[in-house]
Amino acid sequence: MGKIVTIKNNKGGVGKSTLSKNIAHGLSLLENRVALITSDAQNDSLILLGRWFEGGKGLKYHIQTTDDVRIKIRENLDYFPVETDIFGNNLKKKIKLVFENLKKEYDYIIVDCAPVFNVLNDVILEITDEIIVPIKLDKLSTAGITRLINKAEGKKISMVVPNLVRNTKLNKKYYEDLSTFFSGTGVFLSEPIPESVVEEALAEKGKTIFETGSKKAIPIQEIYGDIIGRVING
Ligand SMILES: Nc1ncnc2c1ncn2[C@@H]1O[C@H](COP(=O)(O)OP(=O)(O)OP(=O)(O)O)[C@@H](O)[C@H]1O
Ligand SMILES: [Mg+2]
To answer: Of 23, 64, 81, 168, which alpha carbon lies 20 to 30 A from 58's?
Structure first.
């Protein structure tokens, strides 16, 4: 049975879709069967992988047989588009069934979770095995994560990943604060992922962090390698 890993933060623009594409692709390179799914009707993580969803047959029409909505994006990596107003009536039951079916077929189901409150997100948080939270190292994000950890969904948080990090005193201060906060909690605080022109260029080209020969990408690949190792072994 597959493991559901949700990438979630209620704040926008922190790197949820970026982490989703990189973690999903990294897992697939290790010969895992990976489904990337989103609760974001913009299907951003698909675009970041170099594809475009024009609309049409989203998951809502295919609760049991997902075959004709599957978009094969890389070897071992399939994407399932989600449209707005998905699933109609009986929402919760249908969503759970979709995930049950995906779990039978894939080793990992990575969910790029939109920063909105709706039934789909509620159910995902209920059934997910773990939650990875990308954050920026600033005052509001740090306050947000320390609040979130005390909520019900906070119990499933396995990792916090500082992203878009700059080499500033404040960024260092917030990283140290978070290290202290999370030490001994069982939540893994990853090394900070820098704000990088490499990631910017890869987003533009529709590629992942594992699809570049740039030397500048190596430290970032190592951080993702560590995160992916913990998804597999955690
Ligand atoms: N480490 C990084 N270095 C440079 N650019 C990055 C990095 N991480 C993300 N980005 C860029 O920052 C922007 C926001 O990232 P992303 O779309 O992944 O955030 P998000 O949390 O999914 O946003 P939303 O809340 O809108 O769904 C994107 O243009 C992405 O390419
Ligand atoms: Mg996004």
So the answer is: 23
